[in-house]
Inverse folding.
């Protein structure tokens, strides 16, 4: 469905016309990016009118119309992200008041009667697993992302305020999103996903409905679902920051405070404080085990498992910031979601040209990434290069014995029984590793 560009001329009053001299950019480049922005705003305004006239509150139809509108946005061939963002800042856009988003930076493009539209800029972060409070759609305007989809089956409510649950969180699948790709988003758990961004800067054009807001949730492995609309966030943030500052002064005092919080807070609030504390790096580093032990005697085991799982994801976050190119970012994303070859091989083939991936094998990406994991302190930095390759086989096959066979088959020159034995010992060590172990079998 093409909502049309016939209204673009009516937006002339919304667009301030900076001179090329004042902008410090070539006049032709400003004009091109301004015209593109005008076309996007026209399309959003037309969509807004169409949805208002229909009066439909059907989430599926609403979201599909948003998706259709974005599919008809065409980025100019000579589009340049920096110049586009600079031009957007020179334009008369809606009030850019405070907004709570997962992105590193957010620009509101449209504030209408039925929809809001934003540019989300992603430079350093990737999203947690979440669902959405309103229907809509988003399009990759620039860059690339790996989207992973999940299912959550509630098992038991977490007693307290809000709708928090323990349950089973399962990875359903992943796909690569490149420029112009559109994802329709339905309200609630039908689209529960996370995004890992594979470019130095990825920008998404996001449209969401303004009506019928419901609760939105964050999901944390191995199976904790948190109602993220519950009030009291200021107190949660204060407690997490207070804990961080206490830890800087005294680890023993921080452990004591954490034990007190575990006993005195409701379980939902404690989980929120822990999640906030994890994002502040309180559980990073070699001292983190003492903090985890301070929780163990006072918490549901699933809360402790959640902390350990998020510690592992934090390690991938640190590694992401050290990645040098798209292939390393993709390899990190593959390992983060522990994707089997059948899932990631199509992404590699589709993204090779767009991400400027080399012609090397995926195994070499594993090797690069595993070296990075060692640099980040996740694995023993003294592990030999064959060791990293073996670990790649373990991750790929999910089986220690299969990995050993694949590794030794790939290296027929290894005949020394002592070397073969060392390979087998290394694979046994991996089964006990806190990140890799839970995801592989000994068979």
């Amino acid at each position: 469905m093409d909502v049309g560009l016939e209204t673009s001329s009516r937006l002339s009053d919304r667009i301030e016309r900076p001179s090329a001299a004042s902008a410090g950019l070539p006049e032709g480049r400003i004009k091109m990016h301004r015209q593109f922005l005008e076309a996007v705003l026209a399309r959003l305004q037309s969509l807004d009118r169409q949805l208002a006239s229909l009066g439909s509150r059907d989430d599926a139809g609403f979201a599909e119309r948003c998706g259709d509108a974005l599919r008809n946005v065409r980025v100019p061939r000579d589009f340049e992200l920096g110049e586009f963002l600079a031009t957007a800042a020179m334009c008369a856009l809606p009030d850019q008041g405070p907004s709570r988003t997962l992105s590193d930076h957010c620009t509101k493009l449209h504030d209408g009667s039925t929809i809001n539209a934003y540019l989300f800029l992603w430079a350093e972060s990737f999203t947690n697993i979440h669902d959405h409070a309103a229907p809509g759609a988003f399009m990759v305007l620039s860059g690339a992302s790996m989207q992973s989809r999940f299912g959550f089956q509630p098992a038991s409510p977490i007693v307290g305020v809000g709708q928090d649950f323990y349950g089973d969180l399962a990875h359903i699948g992943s796909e690569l999103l490149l420029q112009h790709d559109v994802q329709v988003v339905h309200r609630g758990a039908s689209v529960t996903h996370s995004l890992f961004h594979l470019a130095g800067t990825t920008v998404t054009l996001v449209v969401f409905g303004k009506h019928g807001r419901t609760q939105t949730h964050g999901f944390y492995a191995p199976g904790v679902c948190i109602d993220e609309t519950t009030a009291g966030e200021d107190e949660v943030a204060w407690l997490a920051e207070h804990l961080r500052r206490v830890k800087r002064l005294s680890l023993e005092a921080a452990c004591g405070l954490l034990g007190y919080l575990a006993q005195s807070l409701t379980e939902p609030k404690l989980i929120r404080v822990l999640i906030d504390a994890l994002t502040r790096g309180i559980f990073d580093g070699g001292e983190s085990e003492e903090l985890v032990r301070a929780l163990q005697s006072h918490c549901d085991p699933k809360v402790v498992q959640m902390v350990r799982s998020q510690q592992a994801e934090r390690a991938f976050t640190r590694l992401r910031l050290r990645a040098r190119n798209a292939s390393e970012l993709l390899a990190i994303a593959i390992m983060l979601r522990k994707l089997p070859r059948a899932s990631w091989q199509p992404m590699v083939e589709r993204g090779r040209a767009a991400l400027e991936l080399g012609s090397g094998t995926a195994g070499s990406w594993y090797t690069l990434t595993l070296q990075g994991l060692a640099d980040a302190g996740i694995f023993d930095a003294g592990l030999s290069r064959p060791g990293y390759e073996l670990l790649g086989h373990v991750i790929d096959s999910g089986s220690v014995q299969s990995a050993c066979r694949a590794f030794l088959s790939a290296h027929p020159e290894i005949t020394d029984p002592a070397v073969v034995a060392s390979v087998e010992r290394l694979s046994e060590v991996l089964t006990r590793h806190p990140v890799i172990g839970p995801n592989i079998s000994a068979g």
Remarks:
- The longest helix spans residues 27-54.
- The chain has three domains: 8-145+172-211, 233-315, 323-439.
- Residues 233-315 form one domain.
- DSSP finds 15 helices and eleven strands in the chain.
